[in-house]
Amino acid sequence: MPNILEAQNLVKNYDSFTAVKGISFDIKEGEIFSLLGPNGAGKTTTISMLSTLYTPTSGDATIGGHSITKEPMAVKGVIGVVPQEIALYEDLTAKENLVFWGQMYGLSGKSLNSRVDEVLEQIGLTDKAKNRVKTYSGGMKRRVNIGVGLLHKPRLLFMDEPTVGIDPQSRRAILDTVKDLNKQGMTVLYTTHYMEEAAELSNRVGIIDHGELIALGTQDELTKQVGETETLILHIGENEDPDALAKAVSAVEGVQKADVTDNEVSVITADAKDILAAVVTKANERGIKIRSMDIREPNLEAVFLHLTGRALRD
Amino acid sequence: MTKLLLIGIKDLKLMFRDRAALILILLAPFLLTLGMGLVTGRFSGNSGSGISDIPIVIVNLDNDSLGDALVNVFNSDDLAELVEPTLSEDSEAARRLVDEDEVAAAIIIPKGFTQSVIPQNGNNAANEEVKIEFYSNPSRPTSAGIIKAILDGFMARLDEMQLSGMTSISQLIVSGRLSPQDANQAGEEMGARLQQAGNLSEATAIKLNTSTSEGEAVEFDLLSYFAPGMALMFLMYTVSYGGRSILAEKAEGTLPRLLISPTNSLQVLGGKVFGIFLTGAAQMLILIGASSLLFRLQWGDPLGVLLLVLAAVFGATGWGLLITALARTPAQIGSVGAAVMLIFAMLGGSFVSLDNLPAYVQTIGKITPNAWAMDGFTTLALGGTLSALSTPLLALLTMGILLFLVSALLFGKKNLVQK
Ligand SMILES: Nc1ncnc2c1ncn2[C@@H]1O[C@H](COP(=O)(O)OP(=O)(O)OP(=O)(O)O)[C@@H](O)[C@H]1O
Ligand SMILES: [Mg+2]
């Protein structure tokens, strides 16, 4: 598959602060590519550069063969964008919003009307199309926000954390929509800080942190980086000292790494069962009470932890 | 271009869905105009007036029946509150009073005026044109306009009589059925008739009852002053509201979303500006339409009114853009816009006729679209036509163009994309 997007060394400075520090990656035609990273990692800034809203401080990218810095107008025709913050006219109805945005993408007449009806169907709002957006629930607004990005049938769709702050049902509907769109041939660049979403949707994942792409590949490739390991999560009470526990546990034979996150200690090891007893003994010696334990197979979360020493969610 | 129009129309639509904004841009000016009308007795037929005791000087060199009749018109009880005439013998001195801003206008009735209208002693005097001179004070356009309207009313009556009555008098003389001596008496009768109260109030119509007025007389309705004053005041609200929506759309993300659609930034900004213009024009035309229908207010020549509205909205839009270009947040535009609205209303004569304000205030007032548009609306209400509007129209257009240029420069420096 040819690349629909190639980003080379994208850098973005906000005054003296560098939000994106030289990011390079490709997206293949037809895939779902996820940018996974915590709050403030630089996902939105990256999307803003790729969608020609912000000019990169340095670096460039081509989308559908057009440079985002030199041919922004050509790029705009190839991409559809679903921004992280809902960007709609609340005093217009869903239908009026879709019609207006469709016009901004050059649609008109019968093709505009039929496309608007199609999209309304797709986002499941045909019945409520004539209500003003401000009367909608958060999940419904998110769906209209997505609908606007789909109107002109873009070859490449950018979705910036489209499931933030909504109920599980709406989230399920959105994830299914993304998969449907992809099946119909749309390439998707999806950003999220939910490991599960990236895992469910993507062919390939880029992990971004502090403006840098720290890992890139298929999920298999990424989890192999962690090695054949498991993660043992130790939950302790609020009054206990997780740092002391981490330090103690590090000394146990077979423990590769022990990191503190909130009231948990994540222990990376080849086989969790082998160290369980020793870990509990160590904790007892220090007088730290372990409330419960989880064993996790290697996943993207573990990859992130492995690479940064921090949990994905804060 | 189409996208520019579509963005503007979208903004017009949004304004009409914003109930709070509608109250301010349509209901408030309408109610204030209504209130002014009630306070000044516009609806009970009394002629209590915001403008009163307009000082004028009359030089009657004619000293004959018609000249005297005109002097009596200005001294009549009907006009006692409105006009304060003084008499003078010296036309030079009278003009000087105008130049020194002591009076709003000088009316100089030349010698032989009556004779020029009514032939006496068998002379056919109409050959030589003898005209009344109206010397007006440009710094009191409204007052001078009212005086001019009264004078025009008198002259219109005179013309009417000359056509009907007087031609028959001259014919009688020519045919020998009326002696020249009798003709003189006929002239006096005519002068007396001109002063009749009925004619007078119709001719000057300060009583403002357009529905019963049958004459073609020029009228000056006090609401013709308040209605545009209030509409223009709230036009300034509309343009700052429009400017506010530029920054609000930026904060709410719809402006960035427009900029990443295949629409260039000129179309987007142009569309926003067009939206402000469109909203302002709609507001003015609705207010004008409503007051014409409900108050039977006569705004004057429709084409003139339309052009003046467009020019005034253009000038006001320039101010809205300047405020937007200087402000950082939507809230700032809100408060600055409200202040500008009130200051401009005062400086522009929306509350008090500029004629009653000191000269330097009048000069400062020239920076407001309100003052120029008030000037134009007064001219139109007094029966002026398009040609009399050239100064306000030109001033408003120049104002708009200058402000657009300055704002464009300021906008260029300001990044509309990033927060
Ligand atoms: N306009 C701006 N001016 C200055 N700093 C900014 C601006 N936008 C973002 N930043 C900073 O740049 C960094 C990256 O922000 P960005 O919004 O790209 O992160 P993100 O990965 O999208 O985070 P989130 O998951 O919270 O949306 C953050 O530290 C943020 O504070
Ligand atoms: Mg973001």
Detail the topology: elements first, then pairings.
The complex is a heterodimer of chains A (314) and B (419).
Chain A: E1 3-14, E2 17-28, E3 32-36, H1 43-50, E4 58-63, E5 66-67, H2 72-78, E6 79-82, H3 94-104, H4 109-122, H5 138-150, E7 156-160, H6 168-183, E8 187-192, H7 195-201, E9 204-209, E10 212-218, H8 219-225, E11 230-236, H9 242-250, E12 255-261, E13 264-269, H10 272-285, E14 290-296, H11 300-308
Parallel strand pairs in A: 3-8, 3-9, 6-7, 7-8
Antiparallel strand pairs in A: 1-2, 1-4, 4-5, 9-10, 11-13, 11-14, 12-13
Helix pairs in contact in A: 3-4
Chain B: H1 2-17, H2 19-39, E1 54-60, H3 65-75, E2 83-88, H4 91-99, E3 105-109, H5 113-117, E4 133-136, H6 141-174, H7 180-195, H8 197-204, H9 223-252, H10 254-260, H11 265-294, H12 302-326, H13 330-347, H14 359-365, H15 369-381, H16 390-413
Parallel strand pairs in B: 1-2, 1-3
Antiparallel strand pairs in B: 3-4
Helix pairs in contact in B: 1-11, 2-9, 2-11, 3-7, 6-7, 6-8, 9-11, 9-12, 9-13, 9-15, 11-12, 12-15, 12-16, 15-16
Bound molecules: adenosine-5'-triphosphate (ATP) and magnesium ion.
Which percent range fits the helix content of chain A? 25-40%
What is the averaged pLDDT score of chain A? 91
**What sort of overall outline of chain B do the alpha carbons produce when their principal axes are compared?**
elongated
Give the count of helical stretches of chain B.
16
Helix and strand run of chain A = EEEHEEHEHHHEHEHEEHEHEEHEH
| Largest β-sheet summary of chain B | 4 strands, mixed
Oligomer: heterodimer
Number of strands of chain A: 14
Largest sheet of chain A: 6 strands, mixed
Number of domains of chain B: 2
Strand content bin of chain A = 25-35%
Radius of gyration based on Cα positions of chain A: 23 Å
List the uncertain runs of chain A: none
Q: Can you count the helices of chain A?
A: 11
Q: From the helix content, strand content and strand pairing of chain A, which structural class follows?
A: alpha/beta
What percentage of residues of chain B falls in helices of 4 or more residues?
Answer: 55-70%
Q: What is the overall pLDDT average of chain B?
A: 79
Output the helix-strand order of chain B: HHEHEHEHEHHHHHHHHHHH
